[in-house]
Design a protein that fits this description.
The complex is a heterodimer of chains A (746) and B (213). Chain A has 746 residues and is an alpha+beta fold. In chain A, 25% of the residues lie in helices and 25% in strands. In chain A, helix 11 (363-381) runs parallel beside helix 19 and helix 18 (640-659) packs across helix 19 (719-731). Chain B folds into 2 domains: 49-132, Beta-grasp domain (Ubiquitin-like (UB roll), Roll); 135-213, [2Fe-2S]-binding domain (DNA polymerase, domain 1, Orthogonal Bundle), CATH 1.10.150.120. The longest helix of chain B is centred in the last third of the chain and has 14 residues, at 196-209. The chains are: A alpha+beta (746), B alpha+beta (213). Bound molecules: FE2/S2 (inorganic) cluster (FES) (2 copies). One FE2/S2 (inorganic) cluster (FES) sits between chains B (154-160, 191-193, 195) and A (197, 248, 477).
Chain lengths: 746, 213
């Protein structure tokens, strides 16, 4: 096993298996299913941040042409699961998710309060403009900065003493204070919106009174299926969730949101299919975001660069009705050898909507502070930032004293430094110039747990040598199908063009959410298991005619061009004939794969490093990211093209986080001022340079039998501090508040 | 509002509270049909007026989409984007914002790249519209489509139709002479997945390949 087995190499990497559908417009996303008698739902959202709805005047809307119904808490059918609070979403957040049209409470500005359904989109939009809502306002609190002092320990931590959200001390609490060289600094970043290009959409159809089908934009078909089955108190198998193509999600599909239930209510109440695609403005309040977070770091070292202590505190924002937590402080606990280490995690509930996991959830936030602070301390110590990190390199996990399953971070440092030309970096900031522009180099490190879960794959081998596999997993963009086809092709020998991987349907075998960088290691292992199981079945069928198969090493059995062969040429028979001999039309297996106990003896993480070269104009404060080198120790790389693309995408997200993204709220109203792409800036073509991607590409067979660890999160974790550090190196200005806009540099 | 017209757009309302039915009931147009007030009220109650209004509100529209001549009746407020996606089942053209800020809805109108979300369908009267569905020649992909696959110029694929339509136009306009120029002239097409460098590579290749596009 290893490189030869799974890695066709960079040059021969597969094209994306669904590429043709995506470039021809044939790929169907959840708002694109043509259904008979389809109606359109448009949501009306609250215009106050806290209070109650006094009255809703829907008369004009109801009378508007084409409108078939206006639904609010006043007339909504009762959702059976709401009454006893059975309204789950997976993975759960603390507290209780918002219940669509349940009562007259308003928890945040932009909350859906009514839905207008009409026979055309335009008529629904017009109808929605006619709904008049009167409120009884209450005093709201949305200002994070003014209230950070009121942050509390999450209830989840209080309930569970083992939770990593609890206060944590290793060695002496606040031990950094005893260090000869130390710094203390505060870091802040605003809320950031996932803003995938596809608007969150759902088409809900009640096939029968207790049978629901949803074409829904989600990251997990099975979790969504379970959530709606519980919410509507109908058997799980009566709910179908179809999510064949997902136009980006970055985490906001890891939760089921009120607009989904609103569409389902409307479809049930009006007895016809209802489609809801929320607006870009509604994407800012209805489907989560990366919570703004305030962090404090105290960090100290000896003059020769050995860390003495780190204290890392974080305050994040959540809503008043759900307690969203994320692991902001984990990287600090395991990345460097610090004998003294303290972490404190607090939450500030505000009258805002609930945040949700966003790419590199928590870790990207924490890494901004930690990796900036490491850079700051390296500068004070006058030690090269890479050297400083190497001096404090952990050979085992200091958090739990377990050995790493694999860790090739040193290799990443070395490869990355070479590729960016780290030797051009000056220790003294502001001393390298190109024309008018100041030039700086910076780096940052990222890590994320290699969380493998259980997955089941069905595989059907046809007599002509085609293989069709199925799994409920979704593909929000990383190229899941492509990676799975690659694994099956490598395991069975079948050409990729003869393999189909079907996904995005809750009828298919089990997998949870596509999230937490766990798809390839989980589902990929099940694909391998299914393929191996097919081989075993073929062996079991071997008769006198093809006796060599009985004893063949499964490794040497393969299927090519419809021929079943053994590498030593002792067998070469048409699969069709072999099936005929055994009275078979096709061969089907279903295999589950999940992590074993053995893996618990190790600490399992993926690692990344990001190097940035930035140019800063000293007069205008304009920042240009000139070059990025990004590398990962993510285990075996299965599908080079899509993996490299994922790294590029993560870096692009990191550029946005570092320089542009800022969900800005007007606290007089508790409403976002930034509510579309004109005000909420994300990177465009002109903001993104060439990105040089490299992989260590060494397998980790402790995490899974295919040697992968996970890639999606580490692609962004550590990017923002790499850019912030490069800006410091260019200008001598240390900006601790994201985004680093021009005004902060002049 | 001084004078009310039967064909006015929703935004013309005196107040958003006043539905279009209200003014239609009073309109001189209905009077011209010599309907007595009593009948009008009755018509309103049984929603006949909506039937009349619906047909009055639609305008004839003739245009060509992907080489197919279309003769349609559309409400003047329908955007070209919604016409394609919701009425003609051409869902390859995407809606990423509806505000003209993301480029996902880019189509060609008479060979020019246009944001279909900012174009009322009736503005395309007599024009030739090409969407992503009309770019390939039968099974043969357009060179830009093939280059996007080769360079993996996408992830989720949602911005892709818009990127491709824009990319073809970018070359035709003569704005693809360097990577920097491509980045500038493609900046109206957002890719949140961040496949930008691969998109630029794809465009460079098509441009340098010199194929007919
Ligand atoms: S949908 Fe037209 S520019 Fe975004
Ligand atoms: S491919 Fe997902 S937005 Fe561009």
């Amino acid at each position: 096993m290893g490189k030869e087995l799974f890695n066709p190499g960079e040059k021969d990497a597969l094209d994306r298996v669904d590429g043709r559908q995506k470039v021809t417009g044939a790929a169907k996303y959840s708002a694109e299913y043509q259904l008979p008698n389809l109606a359109y739902g448009v949501l009306v959202s609250s215009s106050i941040a806290k209070g109650t709805i006094k009255s809703i005047d829907t008369k004009a809307a109801e009378r508007a042409p084409g409108v078939v119904g206006v639904i609010s808490h006043v007339n909504s059918i009762k959702v059976p699961g709401f009454a006893d609070n059975e309204h789950p979403t997976e993975p759960p957040t603390g507290g209780r998710p918002l219940r669509a049209f349940y009562d007259n409470r308003v928890y945040f500005n932009g909350q859906p309060v009514a839905i207008v359904v009409a026979d055309t989109l335009e008529r629904a939009q017009y109808g929605a403009s006619l709904v008049k809502v009167a409120y009884v306002k209450e005093q709201h609190t949305t200002d994070f900065n003014a209230n950070t002092g009121k942050a509390v320990l999450p209830a989840q931590a209080k309930k569970n003493p083992k939770s990593s959200l609890n206060d944590y001390d290793r060695g002496q609490p606040d031990g950094y204070k005893t260090a000869p060289v130390k710094i203390e600094a505060e870091y802040h970043h605003p809320s950031e919106m996932h803003n995938p290009m596809e608007l969150q959409s759902i088409t809900a159809v009640w096939e029968a009174d207790d049978k629901l089908t949803v074409y829904d934009k989600v990251q997990g078909t099975k979790p969504t299926q379970r959530a709606f089955a519980t919410e509507w108190k109908i058997p799980v198998e009566n709910v179908k969730v179809i999510s064949k193509f997902v136009g980006g999600a970055f985490g906001n599909g890891l939760h089921n949101w009120p607009h989904e239930t609103a569409a389902i209510i409307a479809a049930k109440q009006l007895k016809r299919p209802v489609k809801v695609a929320i607006t870009r403005e509604q994407m800012f309040t209805m489907v989560g975001y990366r919570p703004q977070t305030h962090q404090k770091i105290g960090i100290g070292a000896t003059p020769d660069g050995k860390l003495v202590g780190i204290t890392h505190e974080s305050v994040g924002q959540t809503s008043t009705y759900e307690e969203f937590t994320e692991s902001v402080l984990q990287q600090t606990r395991m990345m460097y050898t610090s004998p003294n280490l303290s972490t404190r995690y607090r939450l500030l509930p505000l009258d805002v909507s609930t945040p949700i996991w966003m790419r590199g959830p928590g870790e990207a936030t924490g890494a901004f502070a930690l990796e900036s602070a490491m850079d700051e301390l390296a500068h004070v110590l006058n030690i090269d930032p890479i050297e400083f990190r190497l001096k404090n390199y952990t050979e085992k996990d200091p958090d739990n004293n377990l050995p790493w399953s694999t860790k090739y971070l040193k290799e990443c440092y070395q490869m990355g430094a070479e590729r960016i030309g780290w030797n051009k970096r000056r220790m003294q900031p502001g001393t390298l110039k190109e024309g008018d522009w100041l030039v700086g180099y910076g780096m940052g490190v990222g890590t994320f747990g290699a969380h493998r879960g259980g997955a089941t794959v069905r595989a059907k081998l046809h007599a002509d040598g085609r293989l069709v596999m199925q799994c409920a997993v979704t593909d929000i963009g990383p190229g899941t199908g492509t990676a799975m086809v690659q694994i099956a092709s490598t395991t069975l020998g079948i050409e990729p063009s003869q393999i189909v991987f079907e996904l995005g349907h809750s009828d298919y075998p089990m997998f949870g959410n596509q999230g937490g960088s766990s798809t390839v290691n989980s589902v990929g292992s099940a694909v391998q298991a299914a393929c191996n199981s097919l081989k075993q079945k073929l062996k079991d069928l071997a008769s006198a005619k093809n006796a060599s198969l009985t004893t063949a090493d499964p490794k040497n059995i393969s299927i090519k061009n419809g021929q079943l062969t053994i590498t030593d040429n002792s067998l070469n028979v048409a699969l069709a004939d072999f099936f005929k001999q055994n009275n078979l039309q096709e061969m089907e297996v279903t295999e589950e794969s999940k992590p074993g106990q053995e893996a618990n003896k190790y600490s399992k993480y993926s690692f990344s490093v990001h190097f940035a070269e930035v140019h800063v104009h000293p007069k205008t404060g304009q920042v240009r990211v000139k070059k990025v080198v990004t590398g990962a120790d993510a285990g075996t790389i299965i599908s080079w093209k899509t993996a490299a693309n994922q790294m590029i995408g993560g870096v692009t997200g990191g550029i946005g986080m570092a320089l542009q993204e800022d969900a800005f709220m007007d606290h007089r109203f508790g409403r976002y001022v930034t509510k579309d792409f004109a005000e909420y800036h994300v990177p465009v073509h002109a903001d993104v340079p060439h990105i040089d991607v490299f992989f260590v590409d060494k397998p980790d067979y402790i995490v899974d039998p295919i040697g992968t660890k996970g890639l999606g999160e580490i692609a962004i974790i550590g990017v923002a501090p790499a850019i912030a550090n490069a800006i410091f190196n260019a200008t001598g200005k240390r900006i601790r508040e994201l985004p680093i806009t021009a005004d902060k540099l002049i | 509002m001084a004078e009310k017209k039967a064909c006015s757009l929703p935004g013309d309302q005196a107040s958003s509270n006043e539905s279009r039915r209200d003014f239609l009931k009073q309109s001189s147009l209905l009077t011209a049909f010599a309907i007595t007030p009593g009948v009008v009220v009755k018509a309103a109650e049984s929603k006949w007026d909506e039937g009349i209004a619906a047909s009055l509100e639609k305008m004839p529209l003739k245009l060509e989409i992907n080489g197919v001549k279309q003769s349609l009746q559309v409400e003047p407020r329908v955007t070209l984007l919604d016409l394609l996606r919701e009425q003609l089942a051409l869902t390859g053209t995407k809606k990423g914002c509806d505000y003209g800020q993301c480029g996902a809805c880019t189509v060609h109108v008479d060979g020019q790249r246009v944001l279909s979300c900012l174009t009322l369908a009736v503005m395309a009267e007599g024009k030739k519209v090409t969407t992503i569905e009309g770019l390939a020649t039968g099974e043969q992909l357009h060179p830009m489509q093939a280059a996007f696959i080769k360079h993996d110029g996408f992830q989720c694929g949602y911005c892709t139709p818009g990127q491709i339509m824009s990319a073809v136009a970018c070359i035709k306009e003569g704005h693809a002479n360097s990577e920097a120029e491509i980045r500038e002239f493609m900046s109206g097409n957002i890719c949140r997945c961040g496949a930008y460098p691969n998109i630029v590579d794809a465009i460079m290749e098509v441009k340098q390949g010199g194929q007919q596009i």
